[in-house]
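User: I'm curious whether this sequence folds into something compact or stays loose and floppy. Could you predict its structure so I can see for myself?
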Amino acid sequence: MCIHYLEGNVGSCPEKRPDRVVPTYTVDQLRTIITDFVVQEYHERVHGTTRMKPRERWLELGERVRPIQDQRNLDFLLKCKKRQVRVDGVYLNTTPYIDEACVLHRYLGKKVLVLHDPRDPSEVRIWYQQEQHKHFVCCAYPQGSPNVLAKTIGTQNRQILSGLNQQLAESAQRRQAAEQALAATQPAQQPTPAAPAPPTDAPASPTAPAPPTPPPDQASRQRAAPSPPSIPGLVLYSYQLPKEPGASDAEA
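Assistant: Here's the prediction. I'll summarize afterward.
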């Protein structure tokens, strides 16, 4: 409506447009002109069909208009991009953003939703989505802006380091608990007893006595007896007495 009456308007027909167009208004100036037209003129002018002003028609709806329960839900009218939280914040268009309250460090390494207005890069709104649930995290600002001081960055870095140390400690505790639970489920193994070593100072075992040698019999004694020495001119005779009936050789 109001654009057609502004200076520099070239119309909607491309064939009727000039070859070269010089801009008359900036984007901010054009936004201000349109806002003033809607609020001050359009809403206060009687509509041809309803015969009422648009502002009065809106107010008559009353309870039929559902109000927004949480004004932060209007953030989803902005553009949304997923970004990962790093040590120095979240990046949007190569610009790092951090928050004043140092809340982002709790989501280090996680993906967050960055809702932003492309026309206003001075602030972004951070949301976190877990399954189907979304909740607001914080507002973040470019590093170096008046909203983010140098001490804020230092505080955030210290909190990030503290959070990492706590995560490491919790990981070590979980690992120790898992090892203890695994050891409790396994049966205890009894150690095999080692063979006792022989004592070094033990007395030597006594040697069994040799069995007595049986006495040789008479024939063996006769064979084992030495022969008498030979004397020249001496003739030896051997006599054998007759055995008495019933007498043994030993008695004889």
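Summary: The chain has a mean pLDDT of 76. The two ends are 169 Å apart (CA to CA).
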